[in-house]
Amino acid sequence: MNRTKLNWLLAALAVMTLTACSGNEEQTTAKPAPVHFESGDECHVCGMVITNFPGPKGEAITEKDQHVRKFCSTKDMFAWMLQPENVNRDHTLYVHDMAQTDWEHPDDTALIDAREAFFVVGSDRAGAMGPTLASFASEDAAHEFMMEHAGEVLRYSEITMDHLNTGMPMGKMDSSTAEHAMEH
Predict the structure, then answer these.
(1) Rounded to the nearest 5°, which phi and psi values hold at 112?
(2) What is the CA angle 133-137-91, rounded to 5?
(3) Residues whose CB falls within 8 Å of the CB of residue 103, separated by 6 or more in sequence, listed in order
(4) What are phi and psi of 145, to 5 degrees?
(5) What does 39-50 look like in DSSP terms, one character per residue?
(6) Per-residue pLDDT tens for 119-169?
(7) Domain ranges across the chain
């Protein structure tokens, strides 16, 4: 084999190797799809049955091992995610787009990327265990909800533990939320 053909063959092998490596890299960095909430799923934070409550839910999927943690509310998801041991970890996060689904029984086909969502904090709508953060795919939908139900529109990156601690403390239920849980 002459030197030109050998160099061409080596170059072709190098390209194929790089292409194969980049293909594998894309597969490992692809965002996992959201997982549907099942009737027996329990909240990773409080242990309550998730589907017994109204309002948007949340889930976190670890990038490394694809472990799914489900939350009965966006408030519980943020309470977990904002913990020092979790805040810098790689997780894919999903929440319900409440402009696309019913508040009482959110549909899992309306799950969206939480990091791209807009949240209404401090509204008069209750989720599991009281006040929650209403989640929306569009800022316009979040503002519409805010105009009807009060609160403040924030991006994912703007939400802090202080926002979660306003209103009713976590771990307590108001009477309407407790009655709703008892019905299910």
Answers:
(1) -130, 165
(2) 70
(3) 54, 55, 125
(4) -60, -45
(5) TT-B-TTT--BG
(6) 999 999 999 988 899 999 999 999 999 999 999 999 999 999 998 886 533
(7) 50-183
